[in-house]
Every structure is written in C-alpha cells, then in structure tokens.
From TrEMBL:
Residues 7-138 form the Creatinase N-terminal domain. Its EC number is 3.4.11.9. Keywords: Aminopeptidase, Hydrolase, Metal-binding, Protease. It comes from Sphingobium xenophagum. It is an enzyme of class 3 (hydrolase). The keyword Thylakoid does not apply. It comes from the Bacteria. GO terms for molecular function: aminopeptidase activity. This is Xaa-Pro aminopeptidase. Belongs to the peptidase M24B family.
Amino acid sequence: MSTYEDRLKALRAQLVLDRLDGFVVPLTDEHMSEYVGAYAQRLAWLTGFQGSAGSAVVLPEQAAIFTDGRYTLQVREQVDGEHWAYESVPQTSIADWLGIHAPQGGRIGYDPWLHTSAWVKAASAALAKKGATLVAVDTNPIDAVWPDRPAPSAARLVVHEDRFAGRSAADKRQAIADWLVETGADAAVLSALDSIAWAFNIRGKDVDRTPVALAYAIIHADATADLYVAPEKMDDAVAQHLGNAVRVSDGVNFAAALQDFAGKTVVADPERAVAAIFDALEQGGATVLPLRDPAVLPKAIKNDVEIAGHKAAQARDGAALSRFLHWVSVEAPKGGLTEMSAADRLEAFRKDTGLLEDLSFDTISGAGPNGAVVHYRVEDKTNRPIETGTLYLVDSGGQYRDGTTDVTRTLAIGTPTREMQERFTLVLKGHVALARAVFPAGTRGGQLDVLARQYLWAQGLDYAHGTGHGVGSFLSVHEGPQRIATFGGGDEPLQAGMILSNEPGYYKTGAYGIRIENLVLVEERAVPGAEKPMLGFATLTFAPIDRALIATDMLSAEEQTWIDSYHAQVLDVVGPQLEGDALAWLKAACAPLTAG
C-alpha cells in the first residue's frame, strides 16, 4: 500500500470480493463531521487529498473525486489525474455522476453510517435510471484494505465549566425536553459531536483542532438522557458532572438502543444524523420526525458569558497575532522565512499566552502562488520561502477555553504592485461594506453576501467560497446553521448573539491570494425611525490590516473612517498587551490612513 495507485487497486479487488461494482467514499465520519479523527480519514488514505471537504466514487474502470471551488487547485496538486477524474460541486453531484457512469444493472456500495437519508434517496433514484442499485454495506471495504488504520481516539472527556458555558447542562437539556413535549416527541437523537458537547457541557480531544468527543446521545422528554461513549473516556469528575439524570452506556450499544423506541416518536436531524440512524429507528417501530437537532440554534446564539469569553479570547489572540505580524515585518526583509517557519512561530506566539488549548484549524500559511490555494496546507514538498515582492496570506486561529478564534491577514512582503493594492482594496471595500451593514431582523446571510462581492464584481472578479461561516464557543471553527453565502447555505435568519466570519477574498492563480477575515457578532441596532427591529455587526477580531496594501484613492470617506476607527480600536484592545518595539510597530500600523 505504498502508493495511492496500490490503494485504489486494493479497493477494487475488495469490491470484487464484496460483489460490488462501485463504492462511494465521503470525507466524514459517523457524526457527519466536517473535521474527522484519523480513523475516519478514508478519502485522504485512498486518494492523497488533504482538504476538509470532498468525496470520491470508485468504479471498476473509472474513479472520480468531487470537491468545491475552495479546492480546485489543491485537489489537482494532491490527487493523481491519471487515476482520478476531477469533478466540481455543486455543478456536478455524485448522484448525477453515478447516473451517467455507473454500469448498467450494477451494485454500488455505500456505508450507511457515512451518508444522510436524503443522499441515499437521491443516489438511489439516479442509479435506478441505469437499472443499478445502491447497496448498504455492513463493513466499509476501505477498512478491510487499510492495514494500519488508526483506532478511534481513547482520550478522556473533559468538563466544560459553567463559568465558560454560561448555562448549566441540566438547564440546556431541560429546554430540549420542553421542546420535545411541545413537539409531541418522546426523545431526540443527537449525533453531531458539537451538539453533544454543547448539550452536556463536555469537551474532548478526539478530533484535531476541534474539542469534541466521539459519542452519541438521546435526550428524553422527561429531561433525562442517555450518553453513549467508550467506557475508557469516562472518569469520576465527568460522571459527577453529568449527574444521575444522565445514563452512560458503552458507545457500541447505541445502534441497538435505537431499536427500542417501538410506538414512540423520535426526532432525528436529516442533515446531521446518518441514514443508519433513521434505518434503525424505523426498523424498531419508531415514528421518526425529521427535524433539526434541537441543540443547533441555541448553540449558535451565544449567551452573555460566551460573548464575554469570546471577546477575551479575541483580545488575547489579537495580541499574539500582532506580535507575529511585527515579527514578520522584522524578519522577512532578512530572508530565510518560509511558510512552515512562519506558521510555527505564529503558533508559538499563541502558546505564549499560556491559555491555548489547540489551534482551531491547521494554519493556512501561503506565500506567493500558494496563497491562491484557498484552503492551502503547507507541507514539506510545498513549503515556499516568503520572498520580497510577494504577498503572504496567513489564515489561523486558536482554541481557548473561553472562545474560538479565526482570522486572516494578507501581508505585502516588500513593496506591492499597484495591481496587488487595487485588488486588496477591492476586497477591503467589500469587507468594510459587510462590517457596516444594518439590516432588519429576519435577514438571511445569503441576502448579505453580495455586499462583500460588489466591488470585485464591478471589475469582473470574484471568489469561489462563502463570505462568512458561524463559529462556536470553544467548539467547531465552522459552526452552523448561520452562513453568509449565496451557495451551500445562507438561508438561516441571522439573530443577535450569532458569531460569523467576514472574509471576502481574491485569488490570482499562480501569483497570489488575498483574504481579509475578522469575526463579527450579530447585535441589535437602534435605528431612529425604524419600523422593525434592526441588526448589525460588531467586529470582534483586532489586528492591523496591512496599510501598505491599501490604495487610499479607491476609498470613500466613510470607508476610510471605518478603517481608521477600526485601527484605533485595535490599538485600544491590543496596545496594552504589547511593549517595546512591538508596541511602537503597532502604533505605526494603526495610524490613520491620512498619516501616510
């Protein structure tokens, strides 16, 4: 299994043994997670693709890998085009592709613990046109040919204290129970790892960069709950925290427990619960209500304690990032900096806070053309020097007990070209437009997306990713249901207390990438004469925006005022945490634009 070609051949041989004519390989786990543990990295093992979103299909003579616009360049660098066809989503779906390429009358396998029921229905319908069938497997064939597949993490659960959560786990579960009574349901299945972490005020270390634990839960209408987790992950402190109202069982018992609801009504989330959960409930005689996981929305609407914690985390993180930006300004002109050494130094600055639990995702440290790879991840073979005359894009974040951060800055190394300045400023104008937006309650994120793109569009430019994603509270750096995007979501009404990113960008293939990202908090706004409740954004991230890249002649007076005001806030929040040369650098970096 030393090459990806060998692995593809081995999978095809296994499919013959399993009497299958194809198999679908998603990048997810049994919890429909975006970021997954090493044991579930089947797509990466099979293809070499290192992105965080994608799927593949393997047929006897063909294989295709499906990724979205964030990975157009990356997938071609990491996956061998001799053996894999590159397909773009949402333009092409796996179901549509199978409807064209699956063999007549073929049997296409899928793991029901890795797909939603909606996907199964769509794929089955597409295959039916070819007289082919979708076949649920009992054992994933990749697991049969992956000789050194890692075991799931055995890390212990950790209590997330109320002083960080702002609300007790008992209170959260009681609210879910009250909702179940109102809905006429007896229980709700929670399978999304961040929902379980939120509802029980627990955290874990089972997924890199995301502090969650592998578990399942069922919350009942009487406010009791069943938590299914490997026994070795429990300790006395967690057991005491959970209390008598939570029954703890071995995770291997979860599937069987789903068949114990005959005659009862159970809520399961069609987007977050896999097909196997729906199948087991229905086979056991339960009536399944396909409703959204009741933890999703309250988790997204942060309480006052979480908001205060996030602001503290952002102030701490902004100081660490500002120290890094100063360090780059000193070291880059000397030469010798690389993407890897810069990313390592940035992590060290965050560790110096003494409160960093983990990064919130692998740092995107992209110099020159690597910055144009939207979700680039540096490795030995791609590591580029950070050279004078180029742009350097760094997208990074930290996991702290009191908050999760995510911030992107683009730096000019040396003197930027006028084109770099103009395109940076188009992105900045979009960022400012979104940051300044005031909108009526009920507005969806998708309705705001154009604000960030308008100036790029006017010049025939765009970017192939959403403008904003939700962010958790010491949880997932990508958290739903809120998004600012015209595709792949964005239909959720924004509500006060939600945290999102504001991150427009521009990417010139083979040359450079630009992205400016701050996190923002949705808050109520008083608008004189308003006839309905209004909302706006409060910026939470504080770090300088590179003044060398700003073409001030392209800014309106209002935009320049916003930037100067933002930099004044950066100085107020971050300045007291710096000293010496770093503080002097920050003062210059935050000077009003009219100061030259």
